[in-house]
Amino acid sequence: MKEYAYFPGCSLEKMAISYNHSALETTYKLGVNLKEIEDWNCCGATAYFHVDELLAYTLGARNLAMAEKEGLDLVAPCSGCYKNMFFTQVHLNHDPDLKEHINAALEEDNLQFTGNTTVHHLLDLFVNEIGLEKIKETVKQPLTGLRVAPYYGCQILRPRKDHEDVENPSFFEGLLSAIGATPIDYALKMKCCGGSLLITSRPAAFSMVHNLLKNAVDNGAEVIATACPLCQINLECYQQQINREFNTHFSVPVVYFTQLVGLALGIKPKRLGLGKEFISPKKAFEAIATATG
Amino acid sequence: MGEKIGVYVCHCGTNIAGTVDVEDVTRWSGNLLKHRGVVLARDYKFMCSSLGQELIEKDIQELGLTRVVVAACSPHLHEKTFRTACERAGLNPYLCELVSIREQVSWVHTDKTAATEKSKAVISGGVERVIHHEPLEPLHVPIHPATLVVGGGIAGIQAALELADAGYPVYLVEREPSIGGHMAQFDKTFPTLDCSACILTPKMVQVGNHPNIKLMTWAEVTKVDGYVGNFQVTILQKPRYVNTELCTGCGICQEKCPKKVRDEVFEVGLTNRKAIYTPFPQAVPNYPVLDKDTCTYFLKGKCKACEIFCPTGAIDFTQEDEYITVPVGNMILATGYDLFDAHRIPQYGYGRLSNVYTSLEFERLCNAAGPTNGNIVLRDGVTKPKSVAIAHCVGSRDENYNSYCSAICCMQSLKFAHLVKERTGAEVYNCYIDIRTPAKGYEEFYKRLLEEGTHFIRGKIAEITNAARTTEEEGKVIVQVEDTLIGKQRRVPVDMVILSCGLEPRNDAKEVAHLFGLSCSADGWLIEKHPKLDPLATMTEGVFIAGCAQGPKDIPASVSQGAAAAARVLGRIQQGEIALEPVRATVDETRCSGCRICNDLCPFNAIIFHEDRLVTEVNPALCQGCGTCVAACPAGAIFGTGFSNEQILSQIEGLLLLNVALEPVPA
Prior knowledge:
The complex is a heterodimer. By secondary structure, chain A is of the alpha/beta class. Chain A has helices at 17-29, 48-51, 53-70, 79-94, 96-106, 122-138, 171-178, 197-200, 202-218, 229-237, 239-246, 257-264, 282-292; strands spanning 2-6, 32-36, 74-76, 119-121, 147-150, 182-183, 223-226, 254-256. A four-stranded parallel sheet of chain A has the order 2-1-3-4, with helices on both faces. In chain A, strands 6-5-7-8 form a four-stranded parallel sheet, with helices on both faces. Chain A is globular, with a radius of gyration of 19 Å. By secondary structure, chain B is of the alpha/beta class. Chain B folds into five domains: 5-136 and 647-661, Rossmann fold (3-Layer(aba) Sandwich); 139-238 and 321-336 and 506-580, FAD/NAD(P)-binding domain (3-Layer(bba) Sandwich), CATH 3.50.50.60; 244-320, Alpha-Beta Plaits, CATH 3.30.70; 339-503, FAD/NAD(P)-binding domain; 584-640, Alpha-Beta Plaits. In chain B, strand 6, helix 6 and strand 7 form a beta-alpha-beta unit. In chain B, helix 6 (154-165) packs parallel to helix 15. The longest helix of chain B is centred in the last third of the chain and has 21 residues, at 555-575. Chain A binds chain B through residues 161, 165, 167-168, 186-188, 211, 214-215, and chain B through 345-347, 352, 400, 465-467, 469.
């Protein structure tokens, strides 16, 4: 069984616990062991890099150093965690002085950051490490006919220049097709969900979420699949308020992609954390059951 | 026998003297290199002036100098000047050495003391080297009067006509079924708005009828042997499956052919052609080409409708590839450009959003002979756009794609804006980074557009999307752009977007460059001999470049280059022979082990391997004296004239000032 160092991040402890459960269940079923890093710390989130770069990089470097100690590549399910860890790795590999400086601090903890692990997003693990062929083979109940909007969000691919197609990727669609669902095409799949703007500027964030929901629903989405806890919350939890504000009638379920994969692999909904949503996907899922008989 | 060496140090105004203490360098050379044979050292304000040159000539004649070292600019600029001066005074020109204390010293340093010391070392190196120079004689080769022109776009057409009109034979090779190039696809030309076909087709006809032009379309050059004056070029004539002796160009075969194929080349995918076709009505030559890959007969073994209906029996299914070898003295490459592939910028939606067009698609849309008979309509084929946005700099001036400016897109976009306005009355939005209209009549055209009421938004488009936010945006293509003049983000909903795509080197430019012994710049364009003073010649003698193959340019510039390249070739032909630099590599056959390591390294294809004797030989007329093979030869069997080991090692000793302590050269 292939093993990875798992960095769940704070959201998956409580708020996005269903993402955590479904991630562990599905990867286990696909022959991958996610070994949680024992004493992981905060990734720095959005704010810390603007407050104190040195300390923010140190946070990331410590997590990476712990994965290195285990000799494992690191997997992060949250896009924010992933971005911070990925860029810490890239940045420190380009700045040997800073790396040395941080390593002096890590030494207190008997840790050493060399920068030789690979950082994967959980979605990347499914698509490129496990592979779509393997997933297709393992699928028990294909989600035939379910029209899913793959929502990439911004931080999985941005800001990057080394990825083949940062502007119009299609690997999420590929994963959804592999589990039998129908990925829908919509223009805003890469647009920001508003992130933490919901705290600082509600009208701006609402307008962004509204555009996203409208674009997905207009193009026939029954369910929106996300790969990040913050995206999930922003898209799901504010639909009522947005309906009041914009005079709309959104009621579209927003689930984690791992929950969809889990269903297709035949894992019980409860083990995938399903049933904790504000907007239940039950109706959409029932349609598959009737479609497949 | 000791040499009598003269050292001349140039001030180059303040170019050198500003950073180097020229007087000190001169004094030092005269005193400390005396024991190495330096009999005099002089400095002068401008050595390259006629007075400076006379100084050298006088010294040679009066003092009997046997070697000359000039410390001035790069040999690229004035080596020839000083060699010629020596020759006039009766000294073999190759006994003169020019060392660079400008490009390699004064221009790159600021510390005067250090620069002065470095100049001394550079001169000392030159002195040590020149001691080992030998008198050389240039190589004279005759020039064959025929010329090969590759590429039948406007630059190639112009070059071919100039040469042919002067009375010399030309082989014009074109890859497509017809000559005309990109210009034949355009509707109007900026800034005068004359019809592109109307000004181009008379020239095409002239080419087709010219007794001195052997036109070979649907053909490609596959091999180039020989050297300047005496090239042997092998051309692949692809089978047309049409006997051109019998064909009258009546067009019945195209009418009767039942197979429709998307025309990806001339009509850029907007409409269909037949499997047997001429790309456009005014094609030259007017014989059709049968496309084997799509022809029903070749795919399924039956049909032959074209053969059945051809009134002259010109269809010939038995034709095969034919290789023709022709002798030519010079070659002009006018291979043109490819349009930037707009799919590479997915956020601009090309290929995804149906009403986003490339510039070449729009040219066809405007063209009266195009798929819509010149009606500017959306992809549905009927709706006239009420608003059109034009994106400048697509794939150009963009670090992610090509960082260069494609030179033609601003004027092209202005032309599009005018045509849209004139023919549809639509609102037009030009989204630009900077407007660049630097040629004759161009700025006036821009002014005219401003007066016509076209909207200009200064900002690079971030995104083109169909995700509507408001009801006005529903069903439209929305252009998201920062208007940097008012400092605001704008969303402009329009019916149609035209992407003014940049120009790129041909996708096979590298292979073509290799075939003709040329090289490509970092951006992929063919490299000229000198960017300012010799943009037509290349580092390979006898090969010239013209038009967009050399870099993005508009029609007038392409025509000028085509004509100028022809003039260069004519000069050569009329001289009858050419003197080649004697700096060449030669192989000592007794030491050559036949390992062939050098064979593939030669950038000029000058190395021949003799299978019978298992030794390598360098063709002296093709060799450009680059020295790659000399350095690579593991047996030390290749000797570079003018760059012998002795010369190089002595120069290094000189640079290290080891000679200052050396024994005096016996007088």
